C-alpha cells in the first residue's frame, strides 16, 4: 500500500530547498507526497528560529496535530530544522509535545532515513541533535518542486556573528562545497531543462575552495545555454568589485542583487557587528550602478534593534530613499536567546518598533510602486513559472525579480516570454504577450 508524506516548511529559501532534500530522502524510502496533512503517514516540520514569530508559528502547528495523532496513532511526526538545534530546545519540544516521534537537528538531516527506521522499531521518541557541524554533503538528491527554478547550495553555515542573529549558533561555521561538484550539478540541471539557477549560501562572498566566489560564478556562467543565474545572500562587507565585473561580463547573470543593509545608522551597524559603514555600503552601490546601471538592488532592514533612537531610524529611512531599493524585507528586531544583542541595554518598546515598521513598510512600498509604474508600456522578458488559478493567468519574473502576470491559451511554464506591460498593481505587473 502506498505511504504518503507531507512537509511543512518555515522560513527562508534555504529551508525551502532543505525541504526538497527531505522530500528526496522520503521518496527514496518509497513515500509519495500528499497535499493534506490528514492523509499523511509521515509529517515533517522543517522549522526556522530566526525570529520569534517563525518559532511560534511552528509551535502552534505542531500543537494542532495532537488530536490527529490520537486518531491516527501510526502517523509519524518529525520535527527538524534550526529550531531544534538551539541549545536545550529539543528537550523542551519533547516535553511539550510528547507525541512527536522524531526530533532532528540541522546537521542530522541526512540521517532522517535511519531515524525513521529506528522509530519504526521503537515506541520511544528518537531525538538526534548533533553538536558538531557535520560534513558537507555533496550528493544530495533533492526532489525539486519548483521547475523551472532550481536552488543549489554552495556553502553552509556562517562565521559573521551579527549580534542579533541566531544562524551561526544553529547552522555552524562556514563550510564550502567542492567547486567541481557545484559546477557539475548546475550543468546537469541546465541539461535537464531548468531555466533559473540560484546559488545559495548565508554569505556566498566568503565561498572558498580551489576558487573564489567570483571565479566560481564566472565558470558557471560561461556557457551558451540560455538560463538565468542568481545568487544569495551577499554580505556587504565582502561584496567585491571583482564580483561586479563578473556580473557585468556574462549575460546570463541577472542584474539583480540582494544586499542586506539592516540599518542606515553607523552606530546601529557597529552594535550589530556588521563591519561596514553606511558610507562604505553606498560606495559599493555606486560602483555597482556605475558598471551595471540597470541593476535592481533588494535588501533586508531591521527596526527596533537595542539602542535604536529616532534619529537612527530616520537615517534608515534616508538610506532607503538614497539607494532606491527595488524591494526590501522589513523586520522588527526579535530577541534571540544566546545572541549578544539579547543582553544589550536599550531594548526598544514594542509600540515604538510597531510605529517604525509601519512607516518603513509604507516607504518601501511607495518606492516599489513608483518603480512599477515606470514599467507600464515597456516590453519585458518573463520566465514563466506557474499558473495562477484564481486570476486565470500565467506568472513569472523578469531578471530584476519583478513579478508579471499574463494570459495565454498555451502552457508556457518554463519558457521565456516577452510581455508588454499594461498595468502596474503595487509590486506586480500585468501585461499581454508581445507580438
Ligand atoms: N530579528 C529580526 N530580524 C532578523 N534577521 C536575522 N535575525 C533577526 C532578528 N533576531 C533578519 C536579517 C537577515 C534576515 C535573513 O533576517 O535582516 O538579513
Ligand atoms: Fe546572520 Fe549575519 Fe550570518 Fe546573515 S551574515 S546569517 S545576518 S550572522
Question: How would you characterize this protein structure?
Answer:
- The chain is an alpha/beta fold and 435 residues long.
- Among the domains are: 3-128, Rossmann fold, CATH 3.40.50.12160; 379-433, Nucleic acid-binding proteins (OB fold (Dihydrolipoamide Acetyltransferase, E2P)), CATH 2.40.50.
- It contains 13 helices and 19 strands.
- The strands form five sheets. A six-stranded parallel beta sheet has the order 2-1-3-4-5-6, with helices on both faces. It has a five-stranded mixed β-barrel with strand order 15-16-17-19-18. Strands 7-10-11 form a three-stranded parallel beta sheet, sandwiched between helices.
- Strand 1 (3-9), helix 1 and strand 2 (31-33) form a beta-alpha-beta unit.
- Helix 8 runs parallel beside helix 9, helix 9 (241-249) packs parallel to helix 11 and helix 12 runs parallel beside helix 13 (350-373).
- The longest helix has 24 residues, at 350-373.
- The model has no long low-confidence stretch (mean pLDDT 95).
- It binds 5'-deoxyadenosine and iron/sulfur cluster.
- Iron/sulfur cluster (SF4) binds at residues 158, 160-162, 165, 167-168, 202-203, 235.
- 5'-deoxyadenosine (5AD) binds at residues 50-51, 164-165, 260, 262, 300, 302, 331, 333-334, 336.
